[in-house]
Amino acid sequence: MTETEVLRASDVAYGYRAQPVVSGLDLSVTRGEWVGIVGPNGSGKSTVLRLLARLLAPQRGTVWLDGQNIARLPAKSVARQLTMLAQSQESVPEITVRELVRRGRNPHLRWYEECRGAHEAVVDWAIAATGLERLQYRLLPALSGGERQRAWLAMSMAQTPETLLLDEPTTYLDIAHQVELMELIRKLNADKGMTVVMVLHDLNQAARYCSRIIAVKQGAVVAEGTPAAVFRPAFFRDVFDIEAKVFLDEGVPVYLPCGIARSESAAGRICEADPGLLR
Asked: pTM above the 0.85 mark?
């Protein structure tokens, strides 16, 4: 790894019995980057993220965190450097939002310490940053899916990691809260230098916010680069099997699907014939 790399996967493979999910994965994440991982359903995106977070152990290859084999690091050491927010939580504990957010401070506390003083100030910051002040004493099961997602994000932020891994964080949010959340993450990335690796289905969101795109298909990286370099009609055809128009909005690529790839439909022909678009 170079000094600027915070995460690297080297020849990583993972699967279930004889069915590989990830095979020969090689990728790196530079400190301070905001990387968007995209790809079709079943491509292995979430598995890649879980491997990077040490929630899954590779069957082959190595994941490196700040130049060290992540599998050999103490759990608390990893948790102080990196955290992952899953798309959904398997269970919702009967605790308040504030109690949940306090759990984010656990990696920074000794076994006999309580969350107080400077640690409590971090909890206040995370709750305020995610707009949860009015909900902080509500029980998690009483919240909507979007509100709970913001509470889990606040817990991740209270952990104050150097690297934040997010799996479809906007799934349960309406449009306004999606933008609010993405702008909050942009601020963490820009102002605090937090490295962000995020799995996204919304490709236009990925293009708008991410500094680099990594496309995964069948468990391997098939394209990577800046959004403007990656998001071309051929990319959507090869990775997602669709025809798409791609144009620039103030330098940011925006795509519009208009047919199934190699289709003889009118939509597909319009895509190919429309002049003035990115090729």
From this structure: yes
Query: Which domain covers residue 264, as residue numbers?
Result: 241-279
- Whole-number Å distance between alpha carbons of 232 and 278: 6
Would you state the structure tokens that stand for residue 219, as one six-digit string? 């468990």
Query: b/e string for 136-156 if b means 16 or more Cβ within 10 A?
Result: beeebeebeebbbbbbbbbbb
Query: For residue 156, what is the domain's CATH number?
Result: 3.40.50.300
Whether residue 201 is found in the same domain as residue 247: no
Please state whether beta strands 242-249 and 82-85 pair in parallel, antiparallel, or not at all (unpaired): unpaired
pLDDT tens for each residue of 105-148: 999 988 777 888 899 999 999 999 888 999 999 999 999 888 88
Domain count, the chain: 2
Q: Residue 126 has which token pair?
A: 């995370």
On whether both 46 and 75 belong to a single domain, the answer is yes
Quick check: helix, strand or coil at residue 204?
helix
- Check residue 209 and give left, alpha or beta (phi > 0: left; psi -120 to 50: alpha): alpha
Please give the C-alpha separations between residue 209 and each of 36, 43, 48, 160, 223, in angstroms, as whole numbers: 9, 22, 20, 21, 18
Contact in structure between 45 and 37 (CB atoms under 8 Å): yes
Condensed to tens digits (0 to 9), the pLDDT of residues 39-86 reads 999 899 999 999 999 999 999 999 999 999 999 999 999 999 999 988
